[in-house]
Specification:
Elements: E1 2-11, E2 15-18, E3 23-24, E4 29-33, H1 40-48, E5 55-60, E6 63-64, H2 70-80, E7 81-84, H3 96-104, H4 109-121, H5 137-149, E8 155-159, H6 167-184, E9 187-192, E10 204-210, E11 215-221
This protein binds adenosine-5'-diphosphate (ADP) and magnesium ion.
Length: 222
C-alpha cells in the first residue's frame, strides 16, 4: 500500500504546494484531479521517486521513499514504478518493440517475449515493428503504456492520458491503463485536469490551486 503524510513542496520562494494525505492500496485505482499548475505532475514525480518533497513522507508498504537517497530512489523506481509520461518519451529512431525492450534493459530472448506480450496486451501486437512516427498518437501512447508495465511494476502512473486525444479516443485512453493495471495486478494512479476522466474512477483525490501562490487545497472524495 502507498501512503502519504503531510506532503508539501516549494519551488523557489513563489510556489508552495500542499497535498492531502492519501492511500492507494495494492491493486487499487485513483484519479488525481485539479487545474493546471496545481501540482499533479509534481505529485507523480514524488511517487516515482524522481523528486523528493520539501516535507512529508511517502511510503510503499514499509519502505519510506522519502527517506531514500537518489541512487536508492532509482532502484526503487526501476523495480516498482511504471510511468506513462504526458509526452510519452519514446525513442524516435526505434520500433515499438525496441522501445519496450530498451525499457527492460537487456535484449534477451526472455525480455523480447515479454515485450511482445505487453504490446499484444495493449492491442499493438501487429504494430511492433513500427517506429513512433509511423504510429498514431493513441498508438504511441499504447507503446508508452506497454513499456511502463513490461517490468511488472507495483504502481502504474499516467500523466494526463487524454491530453492529446479527441473525445472518443480519450475514453479508450482511460480504459486501457485501467484494464492493463488490473491485468498485471498493479495499482493505478492517473492525474488529469480533464473533467471527462473523473467518472471513470471510483476514487478521486482533488488537488486545487487557491490564489497566486498556487497553494494546493484538496480533499479526498473517496
Ligand atoms: N521545476 C520547476 N521549477 C519551478 N517551478 C515548478 C517546477 N515544476 C513545476 N513548477 C511549478 O509548480 C506548480 C505545479 O506544477 P505541476 O506539478 O507541473 O502542476 P500540474 O501538473 O498540476 O499542471 C506550477 O506552479 C509550476 O509552475
Ligand atoms: Mg502536469
Amino acid at each position: 500500500m502507498l501512503q502519504t503524510q503531510g506532503i508539501q513542496h516549494r519551488y523557489g520562494s513563489e510556489v508552495t504546494l500542499e497535498y492531502p494525505d492519501f492511500t492507494l492500496e495494492a491493486g487499487g485505482q485513483l484519479v488525481v484531479t485539479g487545474p493546471s499548475g496545481s501540482g499533479k505532475t509534481t505529485l507523480l514525480h514524488f511517487v516515482a521517486g524522481l523528486l523528493r518533497p520539501s516535507a512529508g513522507t511517502i511510503k510503499l508498504d514499509s519502505l519510506e521513499i522519502t527517506a531514500l537517497g537518489e541512487s536508492q530512489r532509482d532502484s526503487y523506481r526501476s523495480k516498482n514504478i511504471g510511468y506513462v509520461f504526458q509526452d510519452f518519451h519514446l525513442m524516435e529512431g526505434y520500433s515499438a518493440l525496441e522501445n519496450v525492450l530498451l525499457g527492460l534493459g537487456l535484449a534477451s530472448r526472455q525480455n523480447k517475449m515479454r515485450a511482445l506480450e505487453v504490446l499484444s496486451l495493449v492491442g499493438l501486437g501487429k504494430r511492433t515493428g513500427h517506429t513512433p512516427r509511423q504510429l498514431s498518437t493513441g498508438e504511441r501512447q499504447r507503446v508508452a503504456l506497454a513499456r511502463a508495465v513490461a517490468h511488472r511494476p507495483k504502481i502504474l502512473l499516467a500523466d494526463e492520458p487524454t491530453a492529446h486525444l479527441d473525445r472518443r479516443r480519450a475514453t479508450e485512453a482511460l480504459e486501457l491503463p485501467k484494464t492493463t493495471a488490473s491485468s498485471i495486478g498493479a495499482s493505478l494512479m492517473v492525474v488529469t485536469h480533464d473533467e471527462r476522466v473523473m467518472d471513470v474512477f471510483a476514487r478521486r483525490l482533488e488537488v486545487g490551486s487557491s490564489g497566486l501562490e498556487a497553494l494546493a487545497r484538496a480533499e479526498v472524495l473517496a
